[in-house]
Specification:
alpha+beta; about 20% helix; about 140 residues; five-stranded antiparallel sheet
Length: about 140
């Protein structure tokens, strides 16, 4: 997903497992494309929770983190009852937050979907977008005192 010029090691990662249910599929019994964002969201929540900056922590810190860009690359269909492993990696954190996702079949390891999301900090009091990540995020990541 990243070009070699911007590639860097993820600072943090998290994995979740998920099994799509009947309500996740379309009439062809494959997961409807819009539900992939739910898989990404659960992995992203686990990732941010792993360093103590879940949604409640964000609200308490005075920042909202809306998604401003998102990409999903569908490689293979996901079917009802198929056990998935969703991997989320934090790969950018200075001026914006970029999380990359990899969805695999949990048993075979086969890549099913790739994607990424970009979030920016917004000061909830003023509504102003921040052009650098707030110090609270860097502290939570162990990058600032």
């Amino acid at each position: 997903m990243r070009s070699p010029a911007t590639a860097r090691q993820p600072l943090r990662t998290a994995d979740i497992e998920w099994t799509p249910a009947f309500y996740d599929v379309d009439p062809m019994l494959v997961v409807w494309h819009g539900h992939y964002l739910k898989f990404f969201e659960r992995a992203r929540a686990a990732l941010f929770g792993s360093f103590g900056y879940g949604y409640e922590d964000m609200a308490e810190s005075g920042y909202a983190w809306p998604i401003v860009d998102l990409r999903v690359k569908f490689v293979r269909p996901v079917r009802i009852g198929q056990r998935l492993k969703v991997h989320a990696s934090l790969v950018e954190w200075e001026n914006r937050v970029r999380v990359e996702y990899l969805v695999r079949d949990a048993q075979r390891g086969e890549v099913l979907t790739r994607g990424w999301s970009i979030q920016v900090a917004v000061d909830t009091a003023s509504g102003e977008m921040q052009y650098v990540c707030p110090p609270v995020l860097l502290r939570k990541l162990g990058l600032a005192p």
